[in-house]
Amino acid sequence: MPPARSDQAAADFSRVALAHLDPVYTAALYLAGDPDRAADLAQETFLRAFRFFHRFTPGTNCRAWLLTILHNIFRNRYRADRRERGWLDIDDPLTAAAATRAIGAKDDPESLILGQTLDGEVAEALKSLPEEFRSTIVLVDLQDLTYEESARILDCPVGTVRSRLSRGRHLLQSRLYQYAARRGVFKR
Amino acid sequence: MNCVQYSEWVAADVDGIAGVEADSARVHARECVSCRGLRDGQMAVRAALRDRSLEVQAPYGLRTRITAGVEEVARQEAGASAWGGFLRWGAVAVTLVGTMVALWPREPADPMIVAYDRVVEGKIPLAVETSDPGELEAYYGSQEHRGIASHVIDLEALGFHLLGGVVHEIGGRSVRLSVYTDGRSLVVCDLRKLADYSGHLPGSTEPVFFSRGGLSFCVRRMGEEICVLVGRMPLSAFRLRLLGRV
To answer: Which of A7, A149, B103, B214 would bridge A145 by S-S if both were Cys, CB 3.0 to 4.6 A apart?
Structure first.
């Protein structure tokens, strides 16, 4: 049992850890899928973090530590409830390869996507990815963590992070292409 | 590196990861139009993710909820620690459980057990509903002629808030039952005078935990009184809530 802490410890925790509330909530939202569950997940993360705050080494990456706890809770408690395998549109005719070809044909893919997709579309596309790709992208691209840090959080090899990123971004590209096509940027 | 292999390494290429295989991937992309297209597409996606403001602001109130929760945990730990001073030898006292069970009310349908159960389930109405121990003590004091103790145990430090109490006739005896909640379950406190307690008396202030009739019990001697805490939860959970450890 961790030692009992004073009110000062609670204040220290709030100052050090709660500074990361927004990024932790963001990760929770992309993991859990809806705001209520994300709030519960974030709250549980911080409460567990407080219980084990004596294990946190000052000066190390507190956000990565919190995200590790978040993913552990999600893995143990929430993931089993999810039925999201169906999210992966394997038979989707608008594959990422088709997107790549279409974008490539324009010779300016980056400006095309950046110029034609909206913030909300990128967020929705990200939410639509299968959880293992979504969580990896959130850690690397949104939280700006290294492959190694992400691997520790996800409890998987670095090579798996790299592979999931490759495939996840590929799927995301396909989703963004769908949005762009829907708005007439491409002909399907 | 071939195109299939590159598709697994494209992220490393896009993210500028160093290493022999990542370099090999870059060489392949320079030479392969198809994979170069793949890389450019993923660079666009990466930029879309990183350049947009996709971070979401936590909802109003979440910070307050968490802060309150943290303070509650701190209080619980402090409470558990304080109880630990009284109950430090609780684990040792487990050895008394067998004796306690043998000497505790003998039948599963013991009226005391039934009464506890009914209170825990909220089936016996409280005579006084209050979170103020003083108010409840005044009520118990007014019932002094029934031979009951008036002191109300404060379980706030353990996260149990007082709901109220009632004096109930059980087996021809007046029993005072104070009810607490931690927001999820109810705990009943029966504080009796030693003379009214027929079970095995703990020799010191060491707590005795046991389960009976689907309920979990913690019995502890407090001077000339004996405190019986009863909850409908697994014994390990009950012990954890009161001692801060199993």
So the answer is: A149
This prediction's pTM: 0.54
Q: CB of A103 within 8 Å of any CB in chain B?
A: yes
Separation CA B142–CA B131 (nearest Å) = 18
Q: Which residues pair with B226 in a beta bridge?
A: B192, B221
- Measure the CA angle with vertex A117, ends A112 and A119; round to 5°: 140
How far, in Å, CA of B90 to CA of B71, rounded?
26
Rounded CA-CA distance B186/B205 in Å is 24
H-type alpha helices, B88-228: 90-93, 97-103, 111-120, 133-142
Q: Distance, in angstroms, between A105 CA and closest chain B CA?
A: 9
Select the more confidently predicted residue: A138 or A117.
A138
Q: Name the residue facing B44 among A39, A113, A140 (closest C-beta).
A: A113
Distance CA(B104)–CA(A84), nearest Å, equals: 52
Do B210 and B204 meet the contact criterion of CB atoms below 8 Å apart?
no
Give the closest-approach CA distance of B93 to chain A in angstroms: 19
Residue from the list B14, B62, B245 with its beta carbon closest to the beta carbon of A25 = B62
A70: left (phi over 0), alpha (psi -120 to 50) or beta: alpha
Q: Residue A119 in 3-state DSSP?
A: helix
A5 touches B at CB < 8 Å: yes
Reported as type and span, the H/E element at residue B128 is strand B128-129
